User: Fold this.
Amino acid sequence: MDDQDSARDDKVEKFWYTWCVQGPPRDKVVRGRLYRTLPARERCKFCFAPFDGAGGAVVKTVFQVYPSRFNPLYCNVCDDFAKKYQGGAEVPVTMFFADIRGSTALAEKIEPKVFSDLINRFYVVSTRVLSQTGAMIEKLAGDEVTAIFVPGLSGEDYTRIAVDAARDLLRATGHTDADGPWVPVGVGLHAGVAFVGSVGRPDGIMEVAALGDVPNTAARLTALAGTGEILASEETLRLAGVDVEGLERRQLTLKGRSETIDALVLHV
Assistant:
């Protein structure tokens, strides 16, 4: 690696660290807050810019922001941003995974169109809940939604906000309704340090992602969460300021990990 490449890597690392820990520039914060107030079904999964409806018309006309032709999950601005700042930094995060329980069996019982509508509704509701928190939505894929909470975007209480978002999502999917949920969901949470940044090919699709043990552990916890459960590591709940006294405890051996992890179960 020559000096020019090294200087670029240092610049990119500093950028991502600053963005995730201290927050983006004020103009981007203000614009992001505006985007969250505008109604839409489809949004950029990074900045939440609306893509359709009246909100989409406003941002397209006023800010020239619209779905990227390379990656329709992002707007054109965020796609350019991901390509410009390819790389990342190690930052404190709380990872949020929400997964539909028994989706394979569910898909066998209902028509494909009905199942597709259910998944889409789950995406829309999840995005609506997360758009109020400052989270970065990492993935909307299959039967799962993944989000990254960092202090620079969600605030110093980002771990507590992630826990609140998990509870809000369970409420929004009907887990407190007398008739039961309209879709069965389990949530996994884990906090720690992860590599967050832009990954992919500069000449192809780029995505903002979190990599490392923390997202891997959160994914494993999600796989073990039952319907209506939030399964979180004990340290995560302590960081969130949650009183863990009386909560159900599970000592879990997670696939790919050499040590067990103490997990606690939350409900709404």
The two ends are 51 Å apart (CA to CA). The mean pLDDT is 91.
